[in-house]
Design a protein that fits this description.
Layout (H helix, E strand, L loop, with lengths): L6 E6 L2 H18 L2 E6 L4 H10 L4 H6 L3 E5 L12 H17 L5 E6 L13 H13 L4 E8 L5 H8 L4 E4 L7 E5 L5 E8 L4 H13 L6 E3 L3 E4 L1 H12 L7 E4 L3 H9 L7 E4 L2
């Protein structure tokens, strides 16, 4: 099942834009006979329903028949000890099975992502999660999800890093981050472009965690557009490769010269890293 286009970032900065994206998403799901879930963070559930009603959508009727559900993230996937990517991935499989068992043709969900900018336990793993679910979730399930990023509640740099972890973008343009990390379109792996250094260490760590924890037996890291990488970032990626010792080597495409020098200095990495030049 093609997964490109079903996991989108939606960036906005006012209530009108939020309501327009919401109506487009819900109207499409109702028309396709899908179950629709809205996970709110700062928006009251009643306000979501009013916005849909104002757009001419019978939101109350959809709720009454069980096709539409609006709930708070703090009462659902953030209700436990915090955010856990592995648990969330499992919840998507459960929710999709439940929708299918209820006769729906698929599942679609909106998640307000502003909680990621607060000190919630596990929020530091949000980028890792966004990078993993393209291959681990959307490649397998009849699921469409839009991640809502409100620029009034999150700094531009954080929005940019997270939005670029999606293959499809909607809404306002966002400035490109210093380091972009995104899923590969046609095979399991990641694309890194820009500069990997001290200021982007968190993004590198998330990429490393996504590589080492990925369920796919073969992962690829495309570095063709990476302009710079420092020693600490190299160490994180090397650890990620070493963490996949039970599987095939991590394929590194168009490795820059620092990566090649690292492999020369540490020949033990030869068994876990395969450099591909084409």
């Amino acid at each position: 099942m093609p997964s490109e286009g079903r996991h989108s970032s939606v960036v906005f900065s006012d209530d009108r834009q939020w309501a327009e994206h919401l109506a487009v998403f819900v109207r499409a799901g109702l028309g396709k006979g899908e179950r629709i879930l809205y996970f709110a963070d700062t928006t009251a559930p009643g306000r979501v329903l009013r916005a849909l009603t104002d757009a001419g959508i019978d939101a109350e009727g959809a709720v009454a028949r069980g096709q539409l559900s609006v709930s708070a993230a703090a009462q659902t996937y953030l209700a436990g000890s915090g955010f856990d990517p592995d648990e969330m991935i499992g919840l998507w499989f459960d929710a999709t099975r439940e929708a299918s068992a209820s006769g729906y043709r698929g599942l679609r969900a909106v998640g307000e992502m502003s909680w990621g900018a607060r000190g919630i336990t596990g929020a530091d793993r949000l980028l890792e999660y966004e990078l993993r679910i393209h291959e681990e979730v959307f490649a397998h399930l009849p699921l469409t999800a839009w991640c809502f990023y409100d620029r009034r509640l999150m700094c531009d740099e954080y929005v940019s890093v997270l939005a670029d972890a999606h293959l499809t973008h909607r809404g306002e343009p966002h400035p490109g981050p210093a380091l972009r990390v995104s899923p590969l379109v046609d095979r399991p792996g990641l694309l890194m472009s820009g500069s990997a250094g001290y200021d982007t260490r968190d993004a590198v760590a998330a990429a490393a965690a996504a590589l080492s924890g990925a369920a796919a037996p073969q992962m690829e890291l495309d570095l063709a557009a990476l302009r710079h990488i420092d020693a600490a970032s190299l160490a994180l990626l090397a650890d990620a490769a070493a963490g996949r010792r039970d599987g095939p080597p991590l394929k590194v495409r168009q490795a820059p010269s620092p990566v090649r020098r690292l492999l020369q200095l540490f020949p033990e990495l030869d068994s876990v890293v395969e450099v591909v030049d084409r």
